[in-house]
Amino acid sequence: MKYFCKCILFFTICLPLTGIAHHSFEMFDRGNPINISGEVREFQWVNPHTWIQLLVTDEQTGEVIEWSIEGRSPNVLVRRDWTRNRLLPGEKVTLTIYPLRNGDPGGAIITVEKADGTIINADTPTAVDTAEEGPR
Amino acid sequence: MKTRLFKKALVMMIVMMANPGGYSAFAASESENLSDLTGLWVVSNRSLRGNRDEDFNLLEPGDYLNDSGLAAISSVRPAYDPSAMCLPSIPRHLGGPYPIEIIQNEGRVAQLFEYDNVFRIIYTDGREHPDPIEDQRFMGHATAFWEEDTLVVDTQNFNGKAWLAANGLPVSQKAHLTEWYSLIEDGVTLQLIMKYEDEEYFTRPIWRKYYFNLKNEWGIREYFCAEGNRDNVFNQQGLPGSLREEDILAE
Q1: Chain B residues whose beta carbon lies within 8 Å of the beta carbon of residue A125
Q2: Strand-pair category, B108-113 with B118-123
Q3: Confidence (pLDDT) at B5
Q4: How many pairs of residues across A and B have Cβ atoms under 8 Å apart?
Q5: A9 and B166: CB-CB below 8 Å?
Q6: CB contact under 8 A, A51 and B230
Q7: B234, HSE (Cβ side, Cα atoms, 13 Å)
Q8: What DSSP designation does B71 have?
Q9: What is the mean pLDDT of residues B63-74?
Q10: Which of B42, B81, B94 sits opposite A23 (nearest CB)?
Q11: What does the pLDDT read at residue B232?
């Protein structure tokens, strides 16, 4: 389970999101966002979703666990001033994510806090500001 | 001027005499000049998504689904979602977060979807839908005519393999979509009203109203879903996807 996230696949009807994504986001626990800090192993700039592979060290055991964090497609992010080099391997970041409901090390990204304190809105469908006019 | 009008009238008479049903084709091609939907359009947050009644009030599934439809959404398996397998569908692709380029030519309106890089040709030349049994498609077959400055699109011939949304409700072979496209707000907004009917799963039509913003300064980008799709078992990296084996294997 090192390089990927598995998803428990309980679906419910999800009207607000059904038309806006490659797949449903019901596998993510949108009621309980969490923060995780670690080192970027890879930022995958690919469709249909970008992925941040984040190495997170367990403070108690010292074990390094790789998290797979799903983001919006490059097509959406590039129009939000992201580029394929926005996150680089080795960078230390703190991510706010909606975790997978099944407890596996994965989730949907909400924001990225870089080492200098800069916070980037990742514009996940689960974090949409619906009052904002524009494409989703 | 009189000569041109006379020629038009003469051509129209000849068309009508040769094929009484052909008048609509002639009229459609003439009236295309009255409206031009050409441009790069991006769906707006103002859109009235979801399944609604004719007054665009949101409906509950029990309000519009029959027993088959309710059964379909009660046991959804994401692995079977055509979208998660990078397959397109209408009307789902109309509401994606990616721009749609509309190009109009004589007898045709083309929609170029950034979403999955697929296209849709809407015929305005008066042709009929093909045989619904012999010719079935993920995105259906679309014909249209102009009703003043509104493009009225009729789509049938669905193949039954696509879903209406991620909730597992199929777009059956009996599905019928009607769309009304019109420019509003000085031409910078495209309004799309949709009426969706499917006697296989629905007890009544559902409606949606989408708004699209004109974004001609943008351009269609590549979007090849298979590049990094983890929703299939086998992705580009040769690593397992996010779905479990039992979601891929047939029951």
Answers
A1: 97
A2: antiparallel
A3: 45
A4: 134
A5: no
A6: yes
A7: 0
A8: H
A9: 95
A10: B81
A11: 55
* B224 contacts: CB under 8 Å, gap ≥ 6: A47, B117
Identity of the amino acid at B85: M
Q: Which CATH superfamily is domain A15-127 in?
A: Nucleic acid-binding proteins (2.40.50.140)
Lowest-pLDDT range of B68-82, B118-132, B223-237: B223-237
* Interface confidence (ipTM) of the complex: 0.74
| Model confidence pLDDT, tens digit, residues B92-113 | 999 888 899 999 999 999 999 9
Given this model, what pLDDT does residue B251 score?
A: 42
Per-residue pLDDT tens for B141-200? 999 999 999 999 999 999 999 999 988 899 999 999 999 999 997 788 899 999 999 999
* Amino acid identity, position A73: S
B240/A46 CB distance under 8 A:
no
Residue pair B83/B22 in contact by the 8 Å Cβ criterion: no
For residue B10 the two structure tokens come to 């003469």
- Is the model's pLDDT at A53 over the cut of 50? yes
Q: Where are the domains positioned within chain A?
A: 15-127
Q: Could you please report the per-residue DSSP string of chain A? A: --S-----------GGGTTSSSS--TTB-TTS-EEEEEEEEEEE--SS--EEEEEEE-TTT--EEEEEEE---HHHHGGGT--TTSS-TT-EEEEEEEEBTT-SSEEEEEEEE-TTS-EEE---GGG--TTS-S--
Q: Which residues of B touch A51 (CB under 8 A)?
A: 228, 230
Which residue on chain B is closest to A128 by alpha carbon? Answer: B45
